[in-house]
Design a protein that fits this description.
single chain, mainly alpha, Arc Repressor Mutant, subunit A, 7 helices
Length: 163
């Protein structure tokens, strides 16, 4: 079983729109007036691009997200990571096992009952590459948005999540 993020990554290829120009512009699509449809298409296209970039580091989006989240922390448990990333508990086990098997994370006791997920030396080295890659990706993403709309982009997304 894979995480919610992992399941989305696996479906991206089948959901991602044709290559640019294959069907005309996004505005030419018969459903281009439906915000939810266009949001899903845009999200799928961007996640497919991010997944492709992260594959060069031998990481999935969910892997990189965990590395970014635990960076500099020594207090996050697997259940807390799952809650923050909206990953079901059963899916956290294979995700963390994969990262631990790759030598990117380790488990350290917090108390008698809890273990923190922390980066190893190799995890910190890979994190630096992830941070560089995601920074470039985020810049590229924002540059695709017309300048007049960039300041409103994140607040609009946050409003959708808050409702």
């Amino acid at each position: 079983m894979v995480s919610n993020a992992g399941a989305h990554e696996e479906r991206i290829a089948e959901l991602t729109p044709e290559a640019p120009g294959a069907e005309g512009t996004a505005g030419d699509h018969p459903l281009a007036t439906l915000p939810g449809f266009m949001l899903r298409r845009a999200a799928n296209a961007m996640m497919a691009e991010l997944a492709t970039r992260l594959a060069a580091l031998d990481l999935k989006i969910s892997d990189a997200t965990v590395l970014l989240l635990v960076s500099g922390r020594s207090d996050l448990t697997s259940s807390e990571i799952g809650k923050l990333l909206d990953i079901q508990r059963a899916n956290m086990v294979p995700l963390l096992n994969r990262l631990e098997g790759a030598g990117l994370i380790a488990r350290e006791p917090i108390d008698r009952k809890s273990q923190a997920i922390v980066l190893t030396k190799e995890g910190r080295a890979r994190l630096a590459k992830v941070q560089s890659l995601t920074s470039a990706f985020e810049t590229d993403l924002m540059n695709r948005i017309p300048a007049d709309h960039r300041d409103h982009f994140l607040p609009a997304l946050k409003a959708l999540l808050a409702s």
